[in-house]
Amino acid sequence: MSIQSTRPQSLAFGLGDSPIGLLGWLREKFHEWTDVANYTMPDDEILTFVMMYWMQGATPGLRYYKWAFSEQQESGTRKGFTQYLDTPIGLSCFPKEIMMPPYDWIAPVANVQFRREHDRGGHFAAVEVPDLMVQDVREWFSTETARKALKG
Question: What 3-state class would DSSP assign to 111?
Answer without folding.
Answer: strand
